[in-house]
């Protein structure tokens, strides 16, 4: 008998066709396999038993980086093939899956370390199980001529491997060796060739700009306080924590606690940055993560990274090479021009990067992986969705931007684009959008955007000459969480974040909803507080604390603002006059601004030098085991439940006056939020009989808050949905926008 088998999924660039060939030969089958661009097509001839065993093997024994989404089989008359072959690829059509970049596999690492191997210490060693994919592809299908490796002609030995069906490098598109492949060069800030060993330069305290898979990193010895401080000064990065790369897992265990799940995540083919709890006291410089007790750690994921760890170097700062809020630098020319005031030396190579792509950032919360930045290792894999009626381009928000192209039952999110308030990010956005539209053959019929009229993405939407669908920010968050969990039923949802434009023109950020993706209804929110000063107040948590005290506690609050926050009486009086006389002050229910106020009042952080700093430092101080809470109330006002913390402020100040430990106050505040949220969900469950809750928004990256909340809600018999495939922050809202607009 004969069968034609259509296989859909992530099967390009992962050694799938060679695997099929070997599997067919093992089962004595004849026929062929070929890449159809959108899928792989297989023709097999043999007995029914042979074919059934072959199909089982496709699902059970495929390469580790392959992901089979669907298979379709049809029976045909036998054509009489004499053997099994791999046919030439066809031009792409239909659904396309492109593999993300994959971390160096154990087999290649072993060859890299072997003195006898011809690729000994070769910085671009790869095979069908590892190496660059998305960052080098120019067009589909994923064949060498369609990548930035096209300019490198393989030598005879590499060519023989490439064409040898039994080789691990059979049809490995980036295949290369020192004789025919990309090469490294080390230059100084003037572009002059340097002969010194680059690992020695790192050991001496110099800063290197190192070209990686998806862009440049700025690298220095993480154990050298002077080098770390110099990097901070040159990069203008006052306090935001640096990402770290450790030589191996044993080194990470010297500096951070690590669970089984975190260990598996670090060693996965995605090899993301994983946020870990720091072991204290620590020999690492405090300037790596000022005010925090977590470390963002990753392992070497390219052979070049392994070359950096020579001699006594065991842990390096490995931070994205970019100027503030701009996309990561990714070409040699751009690096030499834009990073010359930061880096002392440049470690370059001549394999072009086609797509910029930052490192992904993850955390493990109660054994579940949470992605806070989705990029290398995950993009451009699709998210499965309920089929849409229309093809959609969703533009996301202005912070932590991603966009989403959705058609049928698949949604393709871009890599992390960054903040959209600068021209470089906007240009990168447009370029990446053009490429992904071409790869996935999606011509959008409508454009979804945030309701905020001042967002750059809203203005971009208006320039595209397509029908527009505005989607409320927090509804997009919630829809994203439901799609992330493939959940189609009705839920009670909570979205906590810094800010989002509400349907009443106020700035929301602590919102309870009920509904499905088709329709959400706002049921409750944190009591509004005036927000004087807009973005300037977001940068000044002490001003937010002043506003809470004046609004919630009047003149008594003014007294404590002067005493605890150091505001001059004249400045307090000015704010009081504005509150009394102005009718146009925006109101906010933001959870992020609440965290800012508490952080400032307790003396933890009174000025944000990066987004979320005050909240992160407050979380970092929490001590375990605190059961006490501050007072709160949930009252119905105007047909909606309003969460009030008015009584919390005098109680919190009383704790400060008693000189209670700041870690105790921080933990007590977190417990208060957990109790208040759980109490509100219980009230809403009683009203609606809905027992499933969904949690989204950037505040849900707070591990102390989220883990405690999960425990409380589980005790109350709620089914809980949290993000798993896309970030809970604004990096995930484009997915929610797309599914709301396209239904």
From TrEMBL:
Pathway: Protein modification; [NiFe] hydrogenase maturation. Residues 192-377 form the YrdC-like domain. Residues 2-88 form the Acylphosphatase-like domain. Its EC number is 6.2.-.-. One of its GO terms (molecular function) is zinc ion binding. It catalyses: C-terminal L-cysteinyl-[HypE protein] + carbamoyl phosphate + ATP + H2O = C-terminal S-carboxamide-L-cysteinyl-[HypE protein] + AMP + phosphate + diphosphate + H(+). It holds the Pfam family HypF_C. GO terms for biological process: protein maturation. InterPro entries: Acylphosphatase-like_dom, Acylphosphatase-like_dom_sf, Carbamoyltrans_HypF-like, Carbamoyltransferase_HypF, DHBP_synth_RibB-like_a/b_dom, HypF_C, HypF_C_2, Sua5-like_dom. Keywords: Ligase, Metal-binding, Transferase, Zinc, Zinc-finger. Belongs to the carbamoyltransferase HypF family. This is Carbamoyltransferase. It comes from Thermanaerosceptrum fracticalcis. The lineage of its organism: Bacteria, Bacillati, Bacillota, Clostridia, Eubacteriales.
């Amino acid at each position: 008998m004969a069968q034609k088998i259509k296989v859909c999924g992530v099967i390009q660039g992962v050694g799938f066709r060679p695997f099929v060939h070997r599997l067919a030969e093992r089962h004595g089958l004849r026929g062929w396999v070929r890449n159809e661009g959108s899928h792989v097509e297989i023709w097999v001839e043999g007995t029914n038993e042979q074919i059934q065993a072959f199909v089982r093997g496709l699902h059970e024994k495929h390469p580790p980086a392959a992901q089979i989404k669907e298979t379709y089989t049809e029976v045909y008359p036998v054509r009489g093939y004499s053997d099994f072959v791999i046919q030439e690829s066809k031009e792409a059509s239909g659904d396309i899956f492109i593999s993300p970049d994959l971390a160096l596999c154990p087999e290649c690492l072993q060859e890299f370390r072997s003195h006898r191997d011809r690729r000994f210490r070769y910085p671009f060693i790869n095979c069908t199980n590892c190496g660059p994919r998305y960052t080098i592809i120019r067009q589909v299908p994923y064949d060498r001529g369609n990548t930035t490796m096209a300019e490198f002609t393989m030598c005879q030995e590499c060519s023989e491997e490439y064409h040898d069906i039994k080789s691990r490098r059979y049809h490995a598109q980036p295949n290369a060796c020192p004789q025919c492949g990309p090469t490294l060069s080390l230059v100084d800030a003037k572009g002059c060739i340097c002969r010194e060993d680059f690992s020695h330069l790192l050991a001496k305290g110099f800063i290197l700009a190192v070209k990686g898979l998806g862009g440049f990193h700025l690298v220095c010895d993480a154990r050298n306080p002077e080098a770390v401080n110099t990097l901070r000064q040159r990069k203008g990065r006052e306090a935001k924590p640096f990402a770290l790369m450790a030589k191996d897992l044993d080194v990470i265990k010297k500096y951070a606690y690590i669970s089984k799940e975190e260990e598996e995540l670090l060693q996965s083919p995605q090899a993301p940055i994983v946020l870990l709890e720091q072991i204290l006291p620590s020999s690492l410089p405090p300037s790596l993560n000022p005010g925090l007790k977590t470390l963002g750690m990753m392992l070497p994921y390219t052979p070049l990274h392994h070359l950096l760890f020579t001699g006594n170097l065991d842990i390096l700062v490995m931070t994205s090479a970019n100027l503030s809020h701009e996309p990561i630098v990714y070409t040699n020319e751009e690096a030499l021009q834009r990073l010359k005031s930061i880096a002392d030396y440049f470690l370059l190579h001549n394999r072009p990067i086609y797509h910029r792509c930052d490192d992904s950032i993850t955390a493990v919360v109660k054994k579940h992986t949470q992605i806070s930045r989705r990029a290398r290792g995950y993009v451009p894999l699709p998210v499965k969705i309920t089929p849409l009626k229309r093809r959609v381009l969703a533009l996301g928000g202005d912070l932590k931007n991603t966009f989403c192209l959705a058609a049928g039952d698949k949604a393709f999110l871009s890599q992390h684009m960054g903040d959209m308030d600068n021209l470089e990010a906007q240009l990168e956005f447009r370029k990446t959008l053009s490429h992904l539209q071409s790869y996935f053959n999606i011509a959008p019929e409508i454009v979804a955007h945030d309701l905020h009229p001042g967002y750059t993405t809203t203005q971009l939407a208006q320039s595209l000459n397509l029908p527009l669908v505005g989607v409320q920010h927090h509804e997009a968050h919630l829809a994203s969480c439901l799609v992330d969990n493939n959940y189609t039923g009705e839920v009670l949802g909570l979205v906590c974040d810094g800010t989002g434009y509400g349907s009443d023109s106020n700035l929301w950020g602590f919102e309870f909803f009920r509904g499905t993706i088709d329709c959400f209804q706002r049921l409750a929110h944190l009591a509004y507080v005036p927000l004087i000063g807009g973005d300037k107040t977001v940068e000044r948590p002490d001003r937010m604390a002043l506003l809470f005290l004046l609004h919630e506690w009047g003149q008594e609050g003014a007294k404590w603002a002067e005493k605890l926050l150091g505001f001059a009486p004249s400045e307090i009086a000015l704010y009081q006059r504005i509150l009394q006389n102005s009718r146009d002050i925006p109101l906010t229910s933001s959870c992020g601004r609440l965290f800012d106020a508490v952080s400032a009042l307790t003396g933890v952080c009174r000025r944000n030098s990066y987004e979320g700093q005050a909240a992160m430092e407050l979380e970092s101080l929490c001590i375990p085991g605190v059961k006490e809470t501050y007072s709160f109330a949930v009252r119905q006002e105007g047909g909606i439940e309003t969460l009030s913390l008015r009584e919390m402020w005098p109680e919190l100040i009383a704790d400060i006056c008693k000189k209670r430990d700041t870690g105790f106050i921080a933990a007590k505040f977190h417990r208060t939020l957990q109790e208040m949220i759980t109490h509100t969900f219980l009230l809403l469950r009683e009203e609606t009989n809905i027992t499933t809750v969904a949690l989204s928004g950037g505040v849900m990256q707070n591990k102390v808050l989220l883990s405690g909340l999960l425990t409380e809600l589980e005790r109350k018999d709620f089914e809980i949905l949290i993000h798993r495939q896309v970030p809970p922050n604004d990096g995930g809202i484009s997915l929610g926008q797309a599914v709301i607009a396209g239904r």
